[in-house]
Each structure stands twice: as structure tokens, then as C-alpha cells.
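hey so i finaly got around to running the thing on Transcriptional regulator, GntR family from Mycolicibacterium brisbanense. pasting the sequence first so u can double check i didnt mess up the copy paste, my clipboard has been acting weird all day
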Amino acid sequence: MSISWDDEAIEQERLHERVARRMARDIVSGRLQEGDIVPPAELIAQKFAVSRTVGREVLQALSAAGLIDVKHGRKSTVAPAKEWRFLEDLVQQAISREQLAGSLAADLYEVRRLVEIAATEMCATRASDEQLDHILSLAQRMHDEAEDDEDEPLDLRRRVTEDLEFHGAIAEGSGNLVLARLVADVRRELVPTWAVDQLDLSEVRDVHDAHLTIAKALRDRDVAAARSEMARHLDWSIGTTLRRALSEEQLETVDDRWRPDWRTTKKPRQR
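ok and heres what it spat out for the C-alpha cells, dont ask me to read them lol
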């Protein structure tokens, strides 16, 4: 039995995905706004020098992601943001490439705060001892490495990877597979906005202190303490990220979405 490699089909698939990503970015960024007419397949084919088949596949992909409304016999239009399927790869990629508009960043960070605090509470009661030991070991390792990095440049990629691993382990410890997947998807979406490259060593150490405090509360199965420390950590992280990752104009659009203390809450380091 042999496999038939259809090079043309592969190339066609790549073409429609590439064009769909371009148009998705225009929608997510607001360059194409709600209600705007979306070019038909024929015009898409002309603009991007592709076939009409590819043009139709582009519209199908955008429709499947909830980015456009397609009605038979009528022109397709840009769908309202409330209809976007934010967990679809096409939408996530577009948002990531566009670095997230201010109000959308606020929406996602609100979701992150809700789901991660819920996951932390569940983890404190549902996770196995082995899972809690693993979470504590991750936090302790990050903490110790940060303390030893006085004369070393910050490895930002490693910091992001370790942060994802720590919070992911807590989500998995919740015992809820859907919640764990949601936490992972939301955090992946927000990575491009993280201001980790603007944190100094003292702030990195503050983050890892917070991780260690959360991990110890989880290991003690202290639900109230774990929830409180995670909320404090997220409040500071979210405020710091929004303040540093967004422009002043974008901050104005989300300012009334956040309590002022969310931007300043920071537990002093305990040596």
C-alpha cells in the first residue's frame, strides 16, 4: 500500500490558511470593523493571486472561527466580537500577532483571573500529594534560581516557560480537564502581552516569592490562603502587564475595568 502525496492539495491548504490569517488580523485589529462588508471569494482570489476555490475556503475558515457572518444570497459581513470563537487557532493567532487591543486584553485577563483562582481552590482540595509536591518543587526551583542570578542576565524565554509550567501544574491539579485546557488556552493567548522583558531582577524575585507562597499554601491544603495569595499575585501581574504592554491610549479604554489597587498591589518581599 502506498501513500499518494497530493502536493497541490497541501499547497492549496497552506494558501487558504495564510490568507485567512491575514484577513483575521484585519478583523481582530479593527481595521475591518463589525458590519463591514467582507470581499467575496472572487475579489479575495484577485487580491491575493489565488484561485476562487482558495477564496471560498478563506471565507469558510473565517466563518468557522465566528469572525464573519455568511448569509446565502447576501454579502458577508464582519461579525461582532461577542460571536468570535476565541479558542479557535485562527482567532488566537490573529490576536497574538496584533498584540491584543486594549479592551480585548482586559477581557482575557479577567477570564484568566477567574479561572486561575478557581483552579487554585480546586487544586488545594483535589490534587494528589505527588502533584502538590511537584508544584512546590517547581516554585522552589524558580525561587532559588532567581536568588542565584545576581550577576547573570535574565533568561526571559526560560522565565516564561517556567511560569507556564507552574500555573499549568496548578490547573492540572484541579482535576478538571476542561478547566485545565481553558487555563492553558487563555495563558497561551496572553503570552505576547506579558511584560516579562521589562521586569528587573527584584521584580522577577517578587514573582517567584509569590509562586513559592502559593505553592506552600497548596501543599498545606489551605484553600483560603492559596486563593488569597493567587489573587494577590494575579492582581499585581495583570496590573503590571497592562501598564507596560499597552499604550496610554489603550490603557484609557480599559482603565475603568480595573480597580486602582490592582496596579499597585504588591506584597513586600520577606527575606
